[in-house]
């Protein structure tokens, strides 16, 4: 086994695979948009970006939504991948907070107000303006506020992680679990699910402890899955962003391979908290909350079905040795304990799950 690979364990997911029947049309809209705004520097970058099939993961998460609405929000993921590779994961800016912060401040301003412009425009800024208009044109006033706040939270999370890269060491596991939902932008994903699928939570639901715990635990479990599937790619490319494997290995002074069982235990315990929160909320949930929960279920499964087939996480070139292969499914979680994890930044989720 390559030192850059880790031997993964089978994944647990209790939800069935779903996909939007208009996937091909959704992907074509997105690829045409990628070409219109040239989210690449050369043909090789174009091919790699299109090969991510980012439209597929949104199409799996939104199997019944209108194709145009799915495409509008899927553009956010294409833009995010292009920007990750150019700014966040690689290069000198990714490990210089003083250089990184002015960049993300401008990007956040564009998601606040697409009409804003600057003397020095960053690459892909016009694409960000266009997708912000496309996403928010179908949104309610509350959803537009959510979009601005959650997009800003993603940029804030990236800046926090850039500071870790500049220090040259991972954050503590407690801090990592606190921030993973922001470094991966899953709060904005939840907002785009609501916009694309045409539902809106009441303010009472959105602000309730169980729903906030549901959103946070779902965001974190989805991104831990992403950590596990992308670790080999990140190490081979020398990405500077944090990953749960490197965080555990640093905290426990162990090898990346020895960190794998603990990563799965954390994933499964958080997944269990999410499922108990879901079970607590569903009996009294209105239609909009039910649709949010369904979108979360679909997303959990979608990340697995898509992530181990997209070349972004499986191989660098068509005929290259795979970064990572799918290890299969398990019918039971590796750790089914209902006890809270011993990390104080997130332990309140379990209190809400057992209330």
Please characterize this protein's 3D structure.
The protein has 355 residues and is an all-alpha fold. It has one domain: Farnesyl Diphosphate Synthase, CATH 1.10.600.10. 65% of the residues lie in helices and 0% in strands. Helix 3 crosses helix 4. The protein is globular, with a radius of gyration of 19 Å. The mean pLDDT is 93.
Write the CATH fold name. Farnesyl Diphosphate Synthase
How many structurally independent domains?
1
Classify the secondary structure makeup into a structural class. mainly alpha
Number of helices: 16
Number of strands: 0
Under the CATH scheme, which architecture would be assigned?
Orthogonal Bundle
The run of helices and strands is HHHHHHHHHHHHHHHH
Low-confidence parts: none
Report the mean per-residue pLDDT as an integer: 93
Summarize the structure.
With 355 residues, this protein is an all-alpha fold.
Strand and helix map with partners:
Layout (H helix, E strand, L loop, with lengths): L22 H15 L5 H9 L2 H8 L5 H22 L8 H16 L12 H12 L4 H27 L5 H11 L2 H12 L5 H4 L2 H29 L6 H9 L3 H26 L5 H21 L3 H4 L33 H7 L1
Helix pairs in contact: 1-3, 1-4, 3-4, 3-14, 4-6, 4-9, 5-7, 7-8, 7-9, 9-14, 11-13, 11-14, 11-16, 12-13, 13-16
Keywords:
0% strand, 355 residues, 16 helices, Farnesyl Diphosphate Synthase, mainly alpha
